[in-house]
Structure formats: C-alpha cells, structure tokens
C-alpha cells in the first residue's frame, strides 16, 4: 500500500479562501491558516512542517490503490485509542482518503472496531459517543467534522486544544479534491465563539482585542497542580502573589491581571459569570481591601482551555471586567478519560504534595454527553522562617552594645524555631460535572462545580513574656509557660451550578436562556490558642489555681464564618445578517453576603467591661489583671458584627459586529446596569480590526467601564489583630476595627456610601504573521480608574477631635474604612511571539510572551463634607497603601518556553522572569528581578500510559533576603558572654509580597493513564 501526501501551495489557498470568505461576509468569517501536514509512507509518519501553537493541523490521507466504495464490506482490526490515531489506522485499512483536523480529532477517544463492516458503519462505530461525524460529499471525499454546527456555543463553543479560531478548511489530493474541500469548508465550517466576541466563527487574529487561548495541554506542561500557578507560569499579564501570616489570604491568594486589583478581573465558567470568594483581604498583602475569585476551586484536570481577554470588557460582560476577563471552559468529551497521579516536594524536604485526578466522559444516548472530574490534592506546609532572636522569657537585660543578657535560665535552651512562615497545610477535594443534551431544535446544558478545602496556617508566636497574649498567673509564670503558636484553620467550600437551553433558528439566529448559582463560604477556627482574658476570669471569678487554669483553659474556638452567593439569570439573543451580526440580552442578578458569629470564647473580653478592667487591684502585685480578649492569633466575630445583606442588579446590553469594508471589522457594545444601592450606569465599547495585508493586522479598542462595590467592601466589619511596624522598626500587635460605611461610627464621621469605580480603557495592537510558522502580536494599553475603592490606613486617635470622639463612642482604638479615595493610571505593553519549526528529529514550538505594566496613583482624596476631610490625606492613605497599588507587583514579566516533541517523548522547558518590585513596610526595599527555570519531561510507555518527571524553579532561586518589617530579631548572650542566639528576625523573606513565593525548588514525578 502506498499512501501519498498532496502538499499544494497552502499559502495561496489560504489567501484565496480569506478573500472569498470576507466577500461573503456571512458565517464563514473565522477560518484557520493551514500550517502543517503529515506524510504517511508505509507504516511510518513523517512530520514535514512544524505545527503552530495557534492553529490546528490537517491530515490528508490519500491511497493510490484500487478505490473501494464506502458500501463495501471490509475487515477491520482497530483498537480503542485517540481519535486522530484511530482515523489514521482506518485510512490504512480501507485505503481511503480521510480529511480531518488533527487538533480537533486528538481531543476525543475512539472506540475499538473488529470484524466486517461497511466503511461508513465502521466510522460510525469508531466515532460513536464522540462529537465527531463522517461526511461524504458529492465527489466522494470523506471528511470528519463535529456533528452539529454551534453544538456548544453556550459554553464558548468547541475550540481545538491549542487553537484560537475555527475548524480548518479541508484539503484534498488533487485539484478536484481541493475544489471539493473548499466547498465543504465554506458549507460545513464550524462556528466557534470565544470570549471577547459574541459572534461565533471569529478567529483570534480577527478580534479587535487580545485574547490568549491556553489549552489543557499547555496548563499541564507547567508541572503545577494549582490553576493559579499554572496561569502565572504561561500568562505574564497574570500574577498570583504569595504572602505569609496574613490570615485568610494564606489560604486564598489574590489573583490579578495587568497589575490591577483582584476584583478588577471578571471570571467566567463556560461563559457564565463566576461568583467571588467570600474573603476580603484586609491585611498587608497584594490586593489589600479587595475580594477576588478563588482560582483554585476548579480542578485543572476539569479544564478544556482557558481564554484570557486582556482588555476592558465591562460594556460586554458587566461589572469587574476592567483589567480583563478570564473564561474557564470545562471539558465536554462524551468518551474516554484519564487517571493521573503526581507526587512532589521542595528541595528543603517539605511541602510534600500528592495530586490525584480522574476524568471520564459518558455518552447520554446518541445526543448528549456528561463529563465528570474528581480531584484530590494534599499539600503539606512549608516553613522558611528565621530564628527567634528576641527574649522569650522575662528577666533579660539590655547591654551597652544592644545585646540582651538572659535572665531566666529557660532562655538558654528555648526553642528558637517558633514560627511557621510559608505555604499553608492544605487538603482539597474537587468535583466537576459538565453536561449537554440535544433536545428539540436546541441543546439543554449545565454544569456543577464543587470543592472543599481544609487549610492550616500559623499566626505570630506568643512567647512567655507576652503579658497581653499569654498572661502571668498567680505562680508568677505565663499561662502557657513555653509559649504557643496559634493556628488559623480555614474550611473553604465552593459550589456552583448552571443549567440552560439554547436553540437555533433557521434564519441564523439563536436564543440562550440560563440560570447560574454560585456560593463560596469560609469558616475560621483558631486552634493552639487561648483567650488570655479568660485566664484572668478563671483566676479571679472562678477561683482556680494556676495549675487548674492551665489544664482547663480552652485551646480552640470557632472564630466566625463568611458566605457569599450569586444568582444570575441570563437571556441572550444573537442574529447573523448578511453584513453584520447582532447580539442583545438581559441579566438579572442577586448578590447575598453573610457574616456568621463565632463562639463567645473567640471574641469576648472576659476581664473588661465597657472599657474598664474588672479585676483591677486584685492581683496583689503577682500576675495579670487585664489581658487581651478573644482568641489569640485570630479573634472571633460577635453577634453585633453579623451580616445578612443582599443586592439586586438588572442589566441590558446590545452588541454588534460588522465587516464595514472587506478588510475592516468594527464592533460596538452598549450596556446598562442598575444596582440597588448606588443607581445605574451606562458603558460603551468601540473596537476594530483592520487587515492591512494578509499577514498584518491592526487592532484597537476604546471603552468605558465600571466596578460596583463588592458586597464585602460594603458590609464587612470586624476587629482583628494586625502586626504593624513600630517605632523601633519591629512588628507590634495592634487591634484594628474595620467599620462598614453604614455603621454608626462611619455615619457619625459623615463617611458617604461607596459608589462605583469608573474606568476608561484604550488599547492599540498589531498582529504580524511573519511566516506561516512565526506570529507576533504587540498590544499597548491604557487604563484610567476614577474613584477607586481603597481601604484606609489604620486611623488612630489624635488625628482629629471628631475621629477621637467617634472611636471612643465605638470603644475602638484604631479604625479603618473603605473609601472612594484614589484615581489611578495604568500603562503597559503585552508582547507575544510564537515560532513553530522542526529540529532534533522532531517538532519545536517556541513562545516568547511578556508584559510590562506600571500603575500610578495620580490623586488621593478624602470624602468631601466628612470629618475625615480635616485629616491630612497622607494620614488616611499611608505610603504603604500607595505602595501596594503601585509597586508590590513586578513591573515586568517575561516567559520564554520551548516545547519539543519526538515520537513518544515530550520536553517542555520554560524560563520565567519576574521583574523588580518594591515593598514599603516601615521602610522601603526593592527586590531584584529573578529568572526561574521549569522543565518537564513526559514519555509514553504505551499509547495510553505516560510517565513524567520535572522541576519547577529547577535552580532553587529565592527572592532577595528581607531587610525591612522584620520581627523577633536580636542577639542574646549568657552570663559568660557566650552567644545563645543572634538573628536578624523570623522573616528571612518578605511576608507581604512574594510574586513566585519563597519555597525554592520543587521536584515531582507523575504518571497518567488515558482510556
């Protein structure tokens, strides 16, 4: 048997097709450039040209033998395997030409076929349960396509694993075959909608705004187990910063796009709005004062692809889409699946992680699918804390050189490894179900996502000599003599479900009606702790001895819980006309937010009433009389701070796109939103794409945007212990109250209700197809945000008489508030270049991606007409608050990756550069740029079983050592002058901002079985 490859002038076909399609200005606007073909000779496959990361390949298999009719009986012996491989085997055994998209077919798993069948019956059996179908045209050309046009437009449609456009045109084996394939391409081409356009069939190159398509394979190649870290590894505009000892932020990291806040990026699941996390970041970390989305709640193994729209899109998708939109598309295969295991740990021997994945697709008869994913991840904690250099016991004396002379003999043998600073201990279980069923003239669809995560992080160590947190009892020793390290235990539950129905009409219109519900909850329990004031209560009120107090004082308490839910009803109508496409729709939303009270032991001050010490003068000079209330490390929330609030939103939009002339696409969108609480807002977007030549396009967009105050910013309130830099440069504990804007205290100061942020987005970019294998895009963006919602500094007494009076009446020493208090400007450039070629006996795909961004606070202001107007604005918003917005994230991120594939081997090498960033935390320190190297090697032992080994941060790179905002530093000597301990503090690395963490190298091995 001889199988011949026909390699015509692909470029000329591509150009001619582009002209024909654009002239028709109909449903065929999106198409793919053919960039690779495969040659089969005998039983071997030879790669003739590298395939692109952005475009799929096309197999054209032609047999130069006696032609067999499709109705003839043929004996088949094809095992169950990936569909692209099965189709190649089918072509060999039938000696027939089969035209299909490699990138499309490889997403599915084919069935086994043994025995005698007609060719079409064999194909039907082979592809049964998949979404692929066989079509024979009038010339006898056999091609493979999806079963139904617009099959899954509700969840952003079918897109190939590394493609950003539509099903490729079909090529045949001679001029007649080419013409036939061209007709099939124009008649049967599948339309695909991606985020950034409501028109199915638009390619990424045609879009007027930049969109990244990140395939499941690309995500897996990073070697990471968390979606947030995966995105950070391959999308330079995305940041996923780490911090330590920052309460709930340790368990749920802030995710940002283009250096803006976590709440200025909209996240979608299958094109539907995703709910936010219930937590709000109020401590000193990236995203302070904001509430984002939990990117790790969706298992990576459930994801088919992620689309990242790097442009403002509030006029298209509503609130939050100022920096851009991230759309997570779930797997939807009806056959096959995989089971995978991954094990790894850090070079320091900690952070041991086990990740288990199971994914399976099920056919629902002939017309539906149900795809389910189960994930379990167990990650042990890491610890990069320095040694405890300050005195832990009373009796130390400071010498003339600043060293400390130990007094208590226990000081000489005290444990100096008292802190735990690093990643939290974490266990997560996740379940995802995605389904669809063809019903009537449309499709009934839906999904369910569920995850539960248990985390344990540590607070500040409470040593013996800590009168407020570890009070001295009547035996003149602390309640916990050797000190204690409080643990913050969080349980994060996240659930969402969606169902809808989309129908197609004969006039090229569609109607989509859907309902989505999502809820995120977090419960805090503090363990290995005490309520210090309760020790005094047991001593003075209950008459217990010191020994009895130590054995009976509770060591754990439920602090409080938070819940945030979102209900959304959407109706979307689209209509394609000869010269333009129109979309319009409405959305009804209900936001709900609750704060649940904690146990009394977690929040009550047992030895103080109305600010007056109850047991004053009863100690006889021995022990404590007034200690801190609430559970140490993480205090609770009282019934007075409970919240149960809701908000309704109604929105309408209209969106249109058109080829105004042959090579120019213009799009426009207008959206009206009405929010209960602050009223309505109208936003617009204008965008265009001009194909100057067949290889060069210009794109640009102008839009207004908005972000409504989150429910957390409106209603969160509590009292927490925050550690701030004191006069001596070391961290000191401070009880800080966060007051909602409608609280009695805020109203007494005249603080107004929050209003929406307003933005103006501008972007201009160029797309250049240098060759068939080299593509370059450059995009400049400008984002101006007015009335940005920020959290104030910790405002204490002495700033103004009215503030003093308000704090006194509330019984608070320090307060912070959410305010519309800043105007910011962000400027930046995104750069992406891809090159696909052959080398080293295989294929090589190179990607260079970079983001350069700079945000400046151009104006700060206090609420007009309020009592804060008399306070200096630099006292309301500190230098640290400004630094968080401007400097705590790298100004540049660069990623260079290379993917090498040969036979059963795949090697992925990635270099990630994290640029300089500056942290202000009592002092200023600029952390230098670092380059991290990631590598992953994968080998297919069989066609179904693969093993892999790899490393993230291969060369064990750490950020610069910390020089500011440290704690527990000092040098202690004994009576003979011998050094007991000398330490610069426990924070060897900045706990405030660490773009790539500070854990060092991570090594892993894994295995995967596909079925």
Structure description:
- The chain has 1011 residues and is mainly beta.
- Helix content is 12%, strand content 44%.
- It has 16 helices and 51 strands.
- The protein has a 22-stranded antiparallel barrel.
- The longest helix has 15 residues, at 10-24.
- Residues 1-69 and 148-192 have low confidence and may be disordered.
Give a quick set of tags describing it:
1011 residues, mainly beta, 16 helices
Beta percentage is 35-45%
Helical proportion, percent range: 10-25%
Give average pLDDT, whole number.
85
- Give the low-pLDDT segments: 1-69, 148-192
| Count of strand segments | 51
What spatial form do the alpha-carbon principal axes imply? globular
Oligomer: single chain
Structural class: mainly beta
Distance N to C terminus: 30 Å
Question: Tell me about the biggest sheet?
Answer: 22 strands, antiparallel, barrel
Radius of gyration: 31 Å
By DSSP (H or I, 4+ residues per run), the number of helices equals 16
Task: Provide a quick synopsis of the model.
This protein is mainly beta and 1011 residues long.
List the helices and strands and how they pair.
Layout: E1 3-4, H1 10-24, E2 38-41, E3 44-47, E4 58-63, E5 73-78, E6 81-82, H2 83-94, E7 98-101, H3 102-105, E8 109-110, E9 113-118, H4 119-126, E10 132-136, E11 142-146, H5 175-188, E12 211-215, H6 216-221, H7 227-234, E13 238-240, E14 255-257, E15 265-269, E16 272-273, E17 303-309, H8 314-317, E18 324-330, E19 337-346, E20 353-364, E21 368-379, E22 397-398, E23 404-405, E24 425-439, E25 442-458, E26 487-504, E27 509-527, H9 532-541, H10 546-552, E28 556-576, E29 580-596, H11 600-603, E30 608-609, E31 612-613, E32 643-661, E33 664-675, E34 679-691, E35 696-707, H12 711-715, E36 718-725, E37 731-739, H13 744-748, E38 757-769, E39 774-791, E40 795-796, H14 801-810, E41 814-839, E42 842-860, H15 873-876, H16 879-886, E43 892-902, E44 905-914, E45 917-920, E46 924-927, E47 930-940, E48 945-952, E49 970-973, E50 979-983, E51 1002-1010
Parallel strand pairs: 7-11, 15-18, 23-49, 37-41
Antiparallel strand pairs: 1-4, 2-3, 4-7, 5-9, 6-8, 10-11, 12-17, 13-14, 15-16, 17-18, 19-20, 19-51, 20-21, 21-24, 22-23, 24-25, 25-26, 26-27, 27-28, 28-29, 29-32, 30-31, 32-33, 33-34, 34-35, 35-38, 36-37, 38-39, 39-41, 40-41, 41-42, 42-43, 43-44, 44-47, 45-46, 47-48, 48-51, 49-50
């Amino acid at each position: 048997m001889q199988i011949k490859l026909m390699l015509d002038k692909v470029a000329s076909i591509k150009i001619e097709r582009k002209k024909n399609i654009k002239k028709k200005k109909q449903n065929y606007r999106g198409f793919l450039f053919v960039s690779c073909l495969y040659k089969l000779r005998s039983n071997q496959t030879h790669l003739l040209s590298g395939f692109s990361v952005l475009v799929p390949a096309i197999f054209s298999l032609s047999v130069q033998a006696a032609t067999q009719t499709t109705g003839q009986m043929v004996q088949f012996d094809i095992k169950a395997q990936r569909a692209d491989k099965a189709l190649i085997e089918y072509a060999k055994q039938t000696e027939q030409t089969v035209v299909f998209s490699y990138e499309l077919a490889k997403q599915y798993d084919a069935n086994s076929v043994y025995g005698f069948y007609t060719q079409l019956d064999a194909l039907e059996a082979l592809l049964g349960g998949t979404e692929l179908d066989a079509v024979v045209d009038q010339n006898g050309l056999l091609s493979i396509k999806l079963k139904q046009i617009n099959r899954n437009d509700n969840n952003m449609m079918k897109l190939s694993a590394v493609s950003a456009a539509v099903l490729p045109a079909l090529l045949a084996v001679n001029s007649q075959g080419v013409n036939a394939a061209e007709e099939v391409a124009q008649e049967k081409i599948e339309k695909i909608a991606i985020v950034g356009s409501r028109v199915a069939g638009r390619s990424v190159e045609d879009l007027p705004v930049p969109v990244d398509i990140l395939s499941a394979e690309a995500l897996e190649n990073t070697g990471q187990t968390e979606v947030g870290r995966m995105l950070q590894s391959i999308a330079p505009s995305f940041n996923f910063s780490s911090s330590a000892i920052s309460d709930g932020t340790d368990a749920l990291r802030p995710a940002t796009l283009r250096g803006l806040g976590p709440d200025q990026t909209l996240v979608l699941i299958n094109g539907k709005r995703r709910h936010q996390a219930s937590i709000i970041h109020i401590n000193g970390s990236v995203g302070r004062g904001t509430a984002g989305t939990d990117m790790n709640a969706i298992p990576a193994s459930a994801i088919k692809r992620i689309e990242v729209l790097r442009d403002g899109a509030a006029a298209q998708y509503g609130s939050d889409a100022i920096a851009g939109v991230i759309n997570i598309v779930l797997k939807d295969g009806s056959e096959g699946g995989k089971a995978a295991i991954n094990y790894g740990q850090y070079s320091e021997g900690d952070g041991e992680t086990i990740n288990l994945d199971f994914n399976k697709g099920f056919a629902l008869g002939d017309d539906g699918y149900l795809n389910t994913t189960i994930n379990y991840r167990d990650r042990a904690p890491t610890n990069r804390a320095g040694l405890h250099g300050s005195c832990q016991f009373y009796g130390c004396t400071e010498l003339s050189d600043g060293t400390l002379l130990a007094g208590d003999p226990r000081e000489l043998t005290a444990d100096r490894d008292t802190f735990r600073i690093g990643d939290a201990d974490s266990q997560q279980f996740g379940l995802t179900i995605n389904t669809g069923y063809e019903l009537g003239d449309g499709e009934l669809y839906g999904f369910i996502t569920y995850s539960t995560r248990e985390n344990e992080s540590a607070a500040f160590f409470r040593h013996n000599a800590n009168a407020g947190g570890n009070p001295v009892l009547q035996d003149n020793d602390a309640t916990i003599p050797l000190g204690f390290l409080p643990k913050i235990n969080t349980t994060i539950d996240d659930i969402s479900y969606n169902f809808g129905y989309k129908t197609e009409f004969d006039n090229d219109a569609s109607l989509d009606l859907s309902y989505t519900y999502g809820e995120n909850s977090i419960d805090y329990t503090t363990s290995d702790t005490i309520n210090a004031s309760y020790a005094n209560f047991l001593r003075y009120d209950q008459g217990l001895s010191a020994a009895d107090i130590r054995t009976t004082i509770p060591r754990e308490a439920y602090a409080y819980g938070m819940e945030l839910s979102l209900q959304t009803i959407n109706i979307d109508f689209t209509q394609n006309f000869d010269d333009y496409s129109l979309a319009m729709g409405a959305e009804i939303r209900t936001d709900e937010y609750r704060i649940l009270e904690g146990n009394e032991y977690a929040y009550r001050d047992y030895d103080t009433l109305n600010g007056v010490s109850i047991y004053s003068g009863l100690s006889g000079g021995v022990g404590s009389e007034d200690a801190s209330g609430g559970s140490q490390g993480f205090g609770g929330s009282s019934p007075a701070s409970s919240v149960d609030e809701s908000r309704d939103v109604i929105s309408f939009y209209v969106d249109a796109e058109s080829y105004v002339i042959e090579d120019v696409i213009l799009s426009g969108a207008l959206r009206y939103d009405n929010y209960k609480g602050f009223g309505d807002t109208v936003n617009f977007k204008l965008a265009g794409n001009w194909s100057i030549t067949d290889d060069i396009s210009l794109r640009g967009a102008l839009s207004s945007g908005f972000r409504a105050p989150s429910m957390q910013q409106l209603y969160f309130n509590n009292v927490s212990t925050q550690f701030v830099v004191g006069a001596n440069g070391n961290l000191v504990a401070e009880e800080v109250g966060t007051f909602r804007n409608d609280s009695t205290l805020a109203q007494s100061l005249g603080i107004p209700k929050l209003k929406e942020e307003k933005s103006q987005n501008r972007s201009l970019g160029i797309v250049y197809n240098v060759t068939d294998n080299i593509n370059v895009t450059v995009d400049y963006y400008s984002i101006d945000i007015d009335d940005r919602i920020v959290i104030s500094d910790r405002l204490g007494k002495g700033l103004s008489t009215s503030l003093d009076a308000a704090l006194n009446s509330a019984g608070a020493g320090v307060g912070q508030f959410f305010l519309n208090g800043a105007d910011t400007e962000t400027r930046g450039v995104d750069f992406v270049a891809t090159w696909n070629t052959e080398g080293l006996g295989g294929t090589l795909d190179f990607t260079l991606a970079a983001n350069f961004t700079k945000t400046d606070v151009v104006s700060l202001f206090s609420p007009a007409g309020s009592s804060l107007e008399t306070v200096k604005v630099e006292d309301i918003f500190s230098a640290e608050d400004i630094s968080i917005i401007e400097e705590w994230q790298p100004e540049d991120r660069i990623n260079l990756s290379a993917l090498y594939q040969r036979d059963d081997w795949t090697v992925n090498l990635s270099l990630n550069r994290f640029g300089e960033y500056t942290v202000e935390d009592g002092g200023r320190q600029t952390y230098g740029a670092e380059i991290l190297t990631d590598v992953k090697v994968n080998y297919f032992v069989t066609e179904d079983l693969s093993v892999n080994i790899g490393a993230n941060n291969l060369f064990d790179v750490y950020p610069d050592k910390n020089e500011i905002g440290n704690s527990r530093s000092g040098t202690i000597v004994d009576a003979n002058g011998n050094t007991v301990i000398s330490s610069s503090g426990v924070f060897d690395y900045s706990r405030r901002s660490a773009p790539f963490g500070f854990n060092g190298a991570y090594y892993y091995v894994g295995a995967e079985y596909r079925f």
